[in-house]
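Intended use. Records like the one below are meant for learning the mapping from a protein sequence to its folded structure. Do not use them to infer anything beyond what is encoded.
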Amino acid sequence: MTDPQTILKQTFGFDHFRGVQEQVIGRVLAGRHTLAVMPTGAGKSLCYQLPALVRDGTALVVSPLIALMHDQIRSADAIGIRAASLTSAGISQAGADSTRSPSSGSPCSNGGFMRPTPAKYPRRLPPPAREYRVPR
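Structure written out for the chain above:
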């Protein structure tokens, strides 16, 4: 595991965490369920981007805002983080090959965004799936 402080400086260019970022990131890295409610501009994105770089595997972020997901993907790509989104419109990512899935290990093995569509959910949700595979 890489040191979060090192990633903070080398990847994101920040010397210090802001507000509760360090506590939130610490909980996530410890594998604890975490709900972080933070105001606009408080650095929520770092709270999932940094752990995605520290931990092995794929980070899955669920967001209801497609425009924000696309902005986050462009920002992640600009600093070398591979990311993609999966919405009703299909898979989207910053790189040229948008047909590969997060589970394939490339090009978006660090993180992915999914947009929930509440109108399509049944009133009673099924039990969570153990694994989700993105169709190729």
